[in-house]
């Protein structure tokens, strides 16, 4: 049993002072506000629930910054993919484990306590599956176990290049038949079975990569778990989908797939007003990845319109070019400000804190998208806790919602003090206990891959 005492903590009911939290076997056993610290309490100043990165491609952390040299032609998402394919084709299972381990260490240091790993780097470099078809998934599990982050594994089904076209040669490590994917799912379930708190869903990659009959065949493999799919990330994708079906990607999914609260549509950047309203009504989550969407030139999701329609969102780190809770939420709001030429666009109303509103949506949306029924400081909930450094200059003198505003919009990346995931204290003084070892393994792999 561990007893923690926080001078200020964000509870489901709002901010409270002098909060004692008792943790037993990785779960919050009791929350008592308004009590003085007692002997044996570990004392901290500011506590928040940990958030989920609901969308991650871990292997891409290894190529962060390697696609910033402009080619002779227009540089877009589609040219960036060529760099990604080359990098993916070079990685061994050991490389994947090394890269994912450092990434998950960095996520924890930056306030993410759970990750939704949209995992599509399945096979060997020749495109044939390993003796254990879930070899690469097992390396993701290994990285999650080493780092301590909570894991929702989302094996991705990828069968075609673009709307029925043959796969690109660079995609050969991603490709599965429906039968292969069923075997992959079974093996992946086995791989996560011994990792406490881990769960699994499925991720049909996109309508570009999955035919309608295949989508219908694989959805039951989720077995009630989450279903994630990329949709409408790029204008070209929308145009190609219109040519293929006469429908836009989000429109097609809403008309032909059983989209409900289990689903998460990743990006959904290019959506019409009608699609926004219909999407919001399903109760599905919009998986927004603002830093990656900016990095790849995707565009800006109509977040204000979606929230006004009652929509739900969470945030993900996607390509992992930069990792941080505050970074994603800040970029989300700043994108709206640039688009609309207003301030505090996503605050929700006059006098409301933008930071608090963003945080609350991301907490709830991330939990829903990764099938975590409850989050936050409440009995029976997994103990995922983040404390902030009250001595940080951008937090000094702040209280309650002003703390979150200061963290998201003014602190940079060094405001986090300690992090617990599943009741285990993994980060202290802003540093994960595995940071140095993880960096050394990551650097050794990436030096070889880059060379």
From TrEMBL:
Formimidoylglutamate deiminase N-terminal domain residues: 1-45
Keyword Hydrolase recorded: yes
All residue ranges annotated as the Amidohydrolase-related domain in the record: 46-424
UniProt keyword Metal-binding present: yes
Top EC group: hydrolase
PANTHER family referenced in this protein's UniProt entry, alphabetically: AMIDOHYDROLASE-RELATED DOMAIN-CONTAINING PROTEIN, GUANINE DEAMINASE
UniProt-recorded name of the protein: Formimidoylglutamate deiminase
Species: Bradyrhizobium commune
């Amino acid at each position: 049993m561990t007893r923690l005492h926080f001078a200020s903590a964000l509870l489901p009911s709002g901010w409270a002072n002098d909060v004692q939290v008792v943790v037993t076997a990785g779960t919050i056993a009791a929350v008592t506000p308004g009590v003085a610290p007692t002997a044996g309490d570990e004392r901290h100043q500011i506590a928040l629930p940990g958030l989920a990165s609901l969308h991650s491609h871990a292997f891409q952390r290894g190529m962060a910054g390697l696609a910033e040299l402009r080619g002779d032609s227009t540089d877009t998402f589609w040219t960036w993919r060529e760099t990604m394919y080359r990098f993916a084709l070079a990685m061994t299972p050991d490389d994947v484990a090394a890269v994912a381990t450092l990434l998950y260490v960095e996520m924890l240091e930056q306030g993410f306590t759970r990750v939704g790993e949209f995992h599509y780097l399945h096979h060997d470099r020749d495109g044939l599956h390993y003796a254990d078809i879930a070899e690469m998934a097992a390396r993701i599990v290994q990285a999650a176990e080493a780092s301590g982050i909570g894991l929702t594994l989302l094996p991705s089904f990828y069968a075609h290049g673009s709307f029925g076209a043959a796969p690109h040669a660079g995609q050969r490590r991603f490709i599965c038949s429906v039968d292969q994917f069923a075997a992959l799912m079974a093996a992946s379930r086995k791989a996560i079975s011994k990792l406490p708190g881990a769960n699994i869903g499925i991720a049909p990659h996109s309508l570009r990569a999955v035919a309608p009959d295949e989508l219908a065949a694989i959805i039951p493999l989720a077995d009630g778990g989450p279903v994630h799919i990329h949709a409408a990330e790029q204008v070209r994708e929308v145009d190609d989908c219109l040519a293929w079906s006469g429908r836009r990607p989000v429109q097609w999914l809403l008309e032909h797939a059983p989209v409900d609260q289990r689903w998460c549509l990743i990006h959904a950047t290019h959506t019409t007003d009608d699609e926004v309203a219909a999407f919001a009504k399903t109760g599905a989550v919009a998986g927004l990845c603002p830093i990656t969407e900016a990095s790849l030139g995707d565009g800006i999701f109509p977040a204000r319109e979606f929230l006004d329609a009652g929509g739900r969102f969470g945030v993900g780190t996607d390509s992992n070019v930069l990792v941080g809770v505050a970074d994603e939420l800040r970029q989300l709001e700043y994108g709206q400000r640039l688009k609309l030429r207003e301030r505090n666009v996503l605050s929700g109303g006059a006098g409301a804190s933008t930071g608090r509103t963003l945080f609350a949506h991301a907490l709830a949306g991330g939990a829903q998208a990764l099938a975590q029924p409850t989050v936050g400081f409440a009995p029976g909930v997994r103990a995922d806790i983040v404390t902030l450094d009250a001595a940080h200059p951008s937090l000094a003198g702040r209280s309650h919602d002003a703390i979150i505003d200061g963290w998201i919009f003014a602190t940079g990346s060094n405001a986090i003090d300690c992090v617990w995931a599943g009741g285990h204290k993994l980060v202290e003084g802003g540093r994960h206990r595995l940071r140095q070892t993880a960096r050394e393994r990551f650097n050794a792999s990436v030096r070889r891959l880059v060379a």
